[in-house]
Fold these 2 entries.
Entry 1:
Amino acid sequence: MNFKKHIIYLSVFTILIFTNCSVKYNLTGTGNIDAKTFQVNRFMNHANLVEPGIDRDFTLKLQDILQGQTNLNLTSTNGDLMYEGEITDYNFSPMAATADQKAAQTRLSITVNVRFINRKKESDNFEKKFSFFYDFEGNQMPTGSTLNNYIDIIFTRITQDIFNESLAKW
């Protein structure tokens, strides 16, 4: 009889565990989002060193990651989620020197200040700076497609960090 009680208790416990617990999972890693739309206002370039066009490139890159990793719809006004801000820093700095005092390695760094507004859940709102860099050989300054590739690498990392902070909660 004692054995039967244990089986009954174990069965009830198992049923309670499996009926009251649930795991929410999706392929993008986002939490449960109560929003349907998002907007990305143009990120203006306020850096001391201005690289033409990076404000537009960053804005489009952020829109692309949000469209690619969520089922939210992009809108130009009144989005449930809103991203805005500015590029605050864009600079080149020597990281290592050669024996004759020339840069052996140079770092391109970009910082973006982001304001995230969730109109459905105000506790998620934040303002935060996101930054990343790319190191390259210091014997020449990158131009053209080489520079664009470096900027793209940096923006890919920054936009992923913004996505993680605002929607994936990582």
Entry 2:
Amino acid sequence: MTDSDKRPIAVFDLDNTLADTGHRQRFLERRPRDWDAFFAAAPEDPPLPEGIALVLASAEECEIVYLTGRPERCRRDTLAWLAAQGLPEGRVHMRRNDDRRPARRTKLEILKRLGRTREIRVLVDDDELVCADAEQAGFAVVRARWTAPSTELKVAQEREGRT
């Protein structure tokens, strides 16, 4: 077992935790929602200073893991965005392209799997339902409240299982 295997894990969401999705919310306000355009615009997300600072501070003691509801088809853009922000490398857990379950279910499933073999120091996420379920399961949570909540994104996360 290497030293990095013994470090606790800090788990970070991406959208509205590290990446400001405000500029692409308009694609979710249309009917039907334009998911391709919403995700295609993700590489242009400005970083959120509060979230970035928390990742960098956490990386001093923890291995960083990214846990997002973005679909797997966004992996290349997501990895490039993380690198462009100077964020620590870490495993990136993404939703299968065909997975439409609510974010709180998919994320909690992955958290529990990670927690079987490693200490999870904290989950940082903006989704209240994800945070509440994670706390109920015994995980320490920091609610990312540094962006204005998006009703459209909340509906998408919970009802449509899209992000």
